[in-house]
Amino acid sequence: MSRLIDQYIRNDAEQSNVMKVEALARRFATRAAKHDREGSFPFDNFEDLRNAGYLKMTVPREFGGDERSLYEMVMLQERLAYGDGSTALAVGWHLGQVLHLRSSDKWPKNIFAALCHDIVNDGAMINTFGSELGSGSPSRGGKPATTAIRTDGGWLITGRKTFSTLSPILDRFVISAYIPEENCVNDFLVRKSYRTTLIETWDTIGMRATGSHDVVLDDAFVASDARLDGQGIDDGGGWLLHIPACYIGIAIAARDYAVQFAQSYRPNHLSGTIAELPTVQQTIGLMEAELRTARCLLYSAADRWDRELDNRPNQRPELGLAKYVATNNALKVVDLAMRIVGGTSLSRNSPLERYYRDVRAGLHNPPMDNTVLHTLAAVALSEQH
C-alpha cells in the first residue's frame, strides 16, 4: 500500500519528479534544525534547488522552463515541505509568482522573458515585497507608505518593506509603491544596489529560515520601463496554493513521526506498543481525517484551476477555502501528533516542536481566515434574491 503522501501521484512522470524532490527533502531535513535554531538563511538548500533545476519549475517551456501545472507544483511543494517547511515556503513564493505571471500576462513580454532567461540560465529568483509596518498585508488593501517619485529616465523609490521573504538571496524584487503625482499604487521591478539595504529583523517562533527580513529603499533608481502597471488577466489567485501545500507537507511529516513513534514505543507497563491502544488509534484516525479532507480539497482545487481556464476568477472562493482548511487542519494534525508522542515532543531534539511552531505561520499567510469566510459569505448571500 502506498504512503499517504503518494496518493495523488497520477502517472510515471509525476512519480519520477516526486522522487527527485524527495531526495532533496531528505537532505534538507538534516539541515533544518540547525537553520531553525540559528535563524539562518539556507543558502545551501537553494544551491541544491538551483542545481536540481527546481527553480525553473513554473517557467514557460518557450523560455526553457518545465511549465509545471498548479497541481504538479502543489505536489512537489508538499513533498519539499515534508523535509523543511521554511525552505519550501520561501521557494514557493518564487515558484508561485512565476506561475502567476505566466497565467496572468501582467508583465510586459520582454521583461518577463528576461526574468525567465535569468531563472533558467542563472538560477535567479523573484518575489514581491508589499507588506509594511504601517499598512500591514497588501492583501487587505492597505496603501503603501513607500513612494515612487518621477526622475529623469525613471523613478526613485523610497520606503521600507517587511516580511520580505527570500530577501537575502534575491538580486531583484518587485516593490509596490504609491505615486503621489498620480494618486495611485504601482509595482516596480527593483534591482539590488547600494540604495537597497537588508535589515535583519526576522526573528520569529516559526518559519525562522525564510529570510523574511526588512528591505529599505533610499531613492533606489528604477528605469521607466521597469514600472509594471499592466493589469493582465484575473487568474483567480491559484498560485497561492503553494502556501497550503507547504503546511500540509509539514503536517504529514508530523503524522508520520507520531505513527512511527506509536509503533515503536513500548512502555514497561504494556505488553505491546502504544499503537495497540484504542485511544492512540483514535487519535491517529483523527489525524487521517484532517489530512485526507484537506488534501482532497487542495488537489481538487488545483486540478480545477488547471482545467477550467476561463472559470478561474470564479474559483477564488474554492481556492481560499482550500487554504483555510489546509492550514487549520495542519494545526490540528501537529497538535494531535504531539499528544501521541507526549512530553518528549516539546524537546528541541524532536522535530515535532519545530513543526508545531512552523504551522502557526500559516494563519498569517494570505488569504487570511476572516477574508476567506467573508468571501464565502458574500457568495452565499449573492445567491439569495
Automatic annotation (TrEMBL):
GO molecular function: acyl-CoA dehydrogenase activity; flavin adenine dinucleotide binding
All copies of domain Acyl-CoA dehydrogenase C-terminal, residue ranges: 244-362
Keywords: Flavoprotein, Oxidoreductase
Keyword Zinc: no
Top-level taxon: Bacteria
Domain Acyl-CoA dehydrogenase/oxidase N-terminal residues, every copy: 24-98
Tagged with keyword Oxidoreductase: yes
InterPro entries cross-referenced by the UniProt entry: Acyl-CoA_DH_C (IPR013107), Acyl-CoA_Oxase/DH_mid-dom (IPR006091), Acyl-CoA_Oxase/DH_mid-dom_sf (IPR046373), AcylCo_DH-like_C (IPR036250), AcylCoA_DH/ox_N (IPR013786), AcylCoA_DH/ox_N_sf (IPR037069), AcylCoA_DH/oxidase_NM_dom_sf (IPR009100)
UniProt domain Acyl-CoA oxidase/dehydrogenase middle: residue ranges: 131-219
Coiled-coil ranges per UniProt: none
Record's protein name: Acyl-CoA/acyl-ACP dehydrogenase
